[in-house]
Amino acid sequence: ASGNYFSEATPSTGIIATGQAFFVQVNTSGQKITFQENDKSVNGYTSRFKTSNNPLKVKMQVDSVQYDLATLNFSTTASNNYVFAEDASKFTNSIYNLAFVTPNNRTVQHNFVSTLLNNSTDTFVLSTTSTVNSNFTLNFSNFDIVPSHKHIILVDKHNNNFIDLRSMPSYAFTINNTIATTFGNRFLVIITDQFNPVPVKLISFTGKKSNQTNLLNWITVNEKNIISYEVQLSANGIDFNTIGLLKATNSNSKTLYTYTDNLAKKYPTSYYRLKINEAKNVEYSNIIIIHENAEQVKNVFIYPNPANDYITVSSNQQTIIKHISILNMQGVAVMNIKNSTTKINISGLASGIYLLKVDTDQGTEMIKLNKD
C-alpha cells in the first residue's frame, strides 16, 4: 500500500519469507517461473520490513511509516559498476524514489560494491526524486558493516552541507521540482579514513531586536584556516539566503563578531544561521529566531516548556495542524510526527535546545523547545 519494496538479486542468499508478496523482473516477454517442491527452504529467512539486515541502510522517509529504501553491501568479489548477478535494479514507484547510482550510470536499490580498503576514500552517489514538492528525511543505519576507524560523510551538493553520519544519522531536506539542484544525484556518501571537521569552536550564536534592526553576535575560539562567516537569513526556517559576509580573524583567543541586519522588518519572524567556510569544509551554526513583533500572536502552543518526557501541541480553533517535526539546532529533523498526534514523547531526545516546526493551514510556525 505504501509503494515500498526490497530488491534481491542474489538467488543463493535470497529466501522468500513466509507470506511475503513478491514480483520478478524478466528480460524478454513470454517467460515464466516455476517452483519445485525441493525449492522450499527450512533455513532462516529475513522479514524484510520487520527486522534489520546487515547492509548499510538508507531510508528516504516521509514519516515513520512511509519510506523508500536503498542499501550498500560490501564484497571482495563485487564490482562498483552495475552487474546483473550482483545488484538489484531500482524499480521506481510513482511518487518518491531513492537509489544509488553506479559509475556506469545505473540506478540500483540493492547495491553490491567492492570491500573498503584502508587508507582509501570511496564515494557513492545517492539519487533522490519525487513527483511532488515535499520535505523528506534521510535516515542511515547499520554502520557496523563499515570499519569503525572510517568516517561516513553525507555531502549535500545543493547547499554544500557536510554531515558526519556516525554522530548525526538523520538529515532533513526538501525537494522542489522547480529547482534542479534539489533532486536527482544530489547526495554523495563518502567513506574515508581522513575527515577533518571545521576546527573552530563556536561558543555562542545569539541575536536580539535593537530598535529597527536585528543585532547578531557570535563568539569563537581556536580559529584555524577559517575563510569567512556568512550570515544567512530565512523567512521559514528552511530556505536560507546569505545576507552578509565577515572575514575570519583566525585567532586562538576568544573573538566576538557582530552583524546588524538593517532589513529586519522584511519578515515578521526571522531565522538566522552562520555558514562557516573553512579551507576544505563547510559547517553551519545553530538557528536563532527573532520576532519582529515581540507581542506576536501565535496560532500554535506547546507545554510544558522546558520538558522532559512529553510535550503537548495545541492550536487555536481557527488553525489546523498538518505536520510536526522536531529539529536539532543544525536544522536536521530528529522526529517526524503524524498530524493527529498532539501528545509527543520526547524522552528519547538528548538534553538541549530544539526547534518545533509545525506546519498548519495558516503557514509554518517554529517554536524553541528546551529538553531537560
Keywords for this entry:
mainly beta, 372 residues, eleven-stranded mixed beta sheet, 0% helix
Short description:
This protein has 372 residues and is mainly beta. The chain is 0% helix and 48% strand.
Question: What does the model show?
Answer:
By secondary structure, the protein is an all-beta fold. The protein has strands spanning 56-61, 67-75, 88-89, 96-101, 107-114, 121-130, 134-141, 151-156, 161-164, 170-175, 184-192, 201-210, 213-221, 226-234, 240-247, 255-261, 269-278, 282-284, 288-291, 300-303, 310-315, 321-327, 333-337, 343-345, 352-360, 363-371. Strand 12 and strand 13 (213-221) form a beta hairpin. The radius of gyration is 23 Å and the shape is globular. 26% of the residues are buried.
SSE layout and pairing:
Layout: E1 56-61, E2 67-75, E3 88-89, E4 96-101, E5 107-114, E6 121-130, E7 134-141, E8 151-156, E9 161-164, E10 170-175, E11 184-192, E12 201-210, E13 213-221, E14 226-234, E15 240-247, E16 255-261, E17 269-278, E18 282-284, E19 288-291, E20 300-303, E21 310-315, E22 321-327, E23 333-337, E24 343-345, E25 352-360, E26 363-371
Parallel strand pairs: 2-5
Antiparallel strand pairs: 1-2, 1-7, 3-5, 4-5, 4-6, 6-11, 7-10, 8-9, 8-11, 12-13, 13-16, 14-15, 14-17, 17-18, 17-19, 20-21, 21-24, 22-23, 22-25, 25-26
Overall radius of gyration: 23 Å
Global morphology: globular
Q: How much strand?
A: over 45%
The parts where pLDDT drops under 50 for at least 5 residues are none
**Total DSSP helices:** 0
Coarse structural class: mainly beta
Please give the alpha-carbon distance between the first and last residues.
39 Å
Largest sheet: 11 strands, mixed
Helix content: under 10%
* Average pLDDT for all residues: 81
Q: Return the string of H and E elements.
A: EEEEEEEEEEEEEEEEEEEEEEEEEE
Secondary structure: number of strands: 26
